[in-house]
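Posted in: Structural Biology > Protein-Ligand Complexes

Title: Requesting predicted complex, zinc ion in pocket

I'd be grateful if someone could produce the 3D structure tokens for the following input. Sequence and ligand are given below.
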Amino acid sequence: MARTKDPHAATVKAWKTRARNASNSGTTQQSGDFAALPPEVQHGVRLARTWPKERPWAATRERLASGVAGVRYNPNLQSEARNLGGRYEVGPKFFALDVGGREHVLYHELGHDLSDQMLRDGSAWGALDLLDTVDGYRELNGQTTPGEVVAEAYAQMRTDRIWLERRAPGLVRLVSERAAHYGFP
Ligand SMILES: [Zn+2]
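-- Reply #1 --
Done. Output follows.
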């Protein structure tokens, strides 16, 4: 899935600096739990726990226009979806996907709230090392940066976990452990 305007890619450098600073101040290991998440992200994660029941990926534009479990339709959005920090917007392109694709996209966006936290605590920086080298570089579904790989792994674990366990068992362990640590569904 092309997310060419994903703002997260541009912030990787800033996060790297922040993770290094957190590491230097010795806060890397003890910073994590649900309370460590920004308040708006805590709110979004609480709503996302209802996704299996609310199924925002199966909702119509009309229902999503007023919002379903933190997911809202924005008719002007150019990408399939975007993360506003605990709130998730979907655009017209979202509805060109089948329901399984929409579910994957929403969990990818939620996965960015997890990856942001993992960039802060430093744990995301080893994510690429848990992938095999293919033709000389490491990628997961076309994603090549730590934040994107973690977000994509989180989504992949929701939609085809067995495939990812075969491909990168260490990545599944890392992302599962961190997701549980921070209270993500
Ligand atoms: Zn992304």
